[in-house]
Amino acid sequence: MTTRTILLVEDNPDDEMLTLRALKKNSIANEITVAHDGAEALELIFSRASSGEPLPGLVLLDLKLPKIDGLEVMRRIRADERTRIIPVVILTGSKLDEDILAGYRGGANAYVRKPVNFAEFAEAVKTLGLFWLILNEPVPKFVPQPD
Amino acid sequence: MVCVDAGGRIVMVNAQMVQLFGYPREDLEGQPVEMLVPGAVRAVHPQHRTGYMADPVPRPMGAGMQLAGCRRDGSTFPAEISLSAIDTDEGILVTAAVRDVTEQQRRQDDLERAVRNLETFTYSVAHDLRAPLRALGGYSSALMEDCADYLGEVGRGYAERILAASGQMSALIDGLLVLSRMARAEMRLEGVDLGAEVARIAAELQDGAPGRRVHFAIERPVQARADRLLIRTVLQNLVENAWKFTSGQDDALIEFGSAPAGDAAICCYVRDDGAGFDPHYAGKLFQPFQRLHPASDFPGTGIGLAIIKQVVERHGGRAWAEGAVGEGATFYFTLNMEEIA
Predict the structure, then answer these.
(1) Residue in A96, A98, A115 nearest the CB of B138
(2) Which of A63, A67, B33, B111 is the most exposed place for a label (fewest CB within 10 A)?
(3) Is the distance from CB of B225 to CB of B338 less than 8 angstroms?
């Protein structure tokens, strides 16, 4: 299985740095690409889709983004045949239910509250069945369980 | 007031209707009442009229619907209409009292706009104030974890203080959001046993701190008509307060019970034998961010009692406190929602 990248869409440099640190701290070895606004994220995803390059295995998506906001980014990912199955985890800055509900209506697979708490992230990954994606070294924290 | 016969003809109108609809009286009387109904619903109106004749009990017309009247010049206005019937020698006459609610409508729109603005504000408070806080908390954790060796004891202590302060501010923001949600949340009234709620909260606190010796004396049942979620927040805040302000004692007593209610439907109190407060400042207690104890003695945000006041007032009641330094405190609140049999 090829290694998939994780796409982090985050405009706040502090949140970006702290998220990258949390993933690294927990031995996530996937390559992580960062897009800093919604337009950049869409361009990255769709240029890969057009050229046949591997799509991100997971998108970590902030809701409040410059240019094109997170919900719209997700809507467009879901609207295209080539990209609709990419797992999207929403990063939310508040507990406001509206955010979360709107996220799910738009087809988010899960959400994680910021700052990215690794336990929550691991839970989301488990829920989504993305063990195959996460290269957790040296010993995986969440081993796929036999059915 | 428009009086209509069984066939839907206007029998009589009062001066107010003449003014409201802009017709001379003689142009109205004897005509079908549908002339006062806006074009869009004029065709179905006779059907509704027949329906009312079949069960002519006094009631508002078109429950939950936006009604309108049609003036002589064809313009319409939002209306509230109540119907009733009188039995006369010439058969049943239906009376419709029509009220122009343009002004109420405008005020309602203004209010809804204000609420929407408040929601936008709350939303940006939640998002924008939190972002720098996450950075403060995140980096101070990172400092402690990644740079512990360079920092040394003193440096780690400073980083810990930054972390604690950002946690405190985060709690303040949460408190403010709860306060604004309590003010806006729709109320669903039901019968609630306040004693049972207090017992549940007490059990949770005791499970969480098995080392503390606190005796609870809880009156049960104490039935009240209230919104369960909102009133739970009140009791939670009061009992947690009592729990917090008795933390300096080896043995503590926390009581919950009902008191003579006076004019209100019910009066309750939560009493503790803890640190108490200077009664001189009792009035300030219920204002947001007011604290009478240094945070080093008793941590908190100072929003809990403001939340209590908000919720209690929405239930038609009030809240007040009695106490003295070192002699414990008693917090009273009344609720005054109508009993529905």
Answers:
(1) A115
(2) B111
(3) yes
Contacts of B131 in chain A (CB under 8 A): 12, 14-15, 93
CB contact under 8 A, B134 and A14: yes
- Closest by Cβ to A94, choosing from B126, B138, B139: B126
CB contact under 8 Å between A93 and B126, yes or no, is yes
Residue A99: closest CA among chain B residues belongs to which residue? B123
Mutation site for B-interface testing, chosen from A12, A94, A117 by largest number of B Cβ within 10 Å: A94
DSSP 3-state assignment of B116?
Answer: helix
Q: What is the pLDDT along chain B (341 residues), one digit of tens a residue?
A: 899 998 899 999 999 999 999 999 999 999 999 999 998 889 999 998 888 988 888 888 887 788 999 999 999 999 999 999 888 887 889 999 999 999 999 998 998 888 888 777 877 777 778 888 888 988 998 899 899 899 999 999 999 999 888 888 888 887 777 777 777 788 889 999 999 999 999 999 999 998 899 999 999 999 999 999 899 999 999 999 999 999 988 899 999 999 988 888 899 999 999 998 888 888 788 887 777 777 777 777 778 888 899 899 999 999 999 999 989 999 999 999 875 43
Q: Which residues pair with A136 in a beta bridge?
A: A28
B209 by DSSP, 3-state: which? coil
Cβ-defined contacts of B198-203 (< 8 Å, 24+): B198/B235, B198/B239, B198/B256, B198/B270, B201/B235, B201/B236, B201/B239, B201/B240, B202/B239, B202/B254
Structure tokens that stand for A107 in this block: 């087809």
Q: Do A14 and B138 touch (CB under 8 A)?
A: yes
The complex scores an ipTM of 0.71
Q: Which of B116, B118, B120, B127 to mutate to test the interface with A (most CBs of A within 10 A)?
A: B127
pTM of the shown model: 0.58
